Amino acid sequence: MNTIKRVQIMTKLRDANPTPKTELNYASTFELLISVILSAQATDVSVNKATGPLYQIANTPAAIFALGEDGLKRYIKTIGLFNSKAS
User: What DSSP string describes 5-36?
Assistant: First the structure.
């Protein structure tokens, strides 16, 4: 697909939905990034249930890193593929 075709497609999408929304709950772009990563092969509902408590404790890169892999797993264990995602 060439550049012109890609721009046409993206323009049509933007015109059809100028303010897209997500069902994921987030308060910062970092939280959105983490939620999107966790949402692979999972429902938004399951991600929101896990990230609600997680973001109260750790909502920055440093705070999530400080949890360690095992600490993070405790929060996201209800999400599919949580072992891989925690890694």
Answer: HHHHHHHHHHHH-SS---SS--SSHHHHHHHH
pTM confidence score? 0.79
With tokens 């993070």, the residue in question is 72
What is the distance between the alpha carbons of residues 27 and 60, in angstroms, rounded to a whole number? 11
Q: What is the DSSP letter of 52?
A: H
The span from the CA of 35 to the CA of 25, in Å, is: 8
Local confidence pLDDT in tens for the 87 residues of the chain:
899 999 999 999 999 999 999 999 999 999 999 999 999 999 999 999 999 999 999 999 999 999 999 999 999 999 989 999 999
Quote the tokens at residue 60: 């920055």
- Taking a C-beta distance cutoff of 8 angstroms, is the pair 35, 25 a contact? yes
Q: Which own/partner pairs from 16-22 qualify as long-range (CB within 8 Å, at least 24 positions apart)? A: none
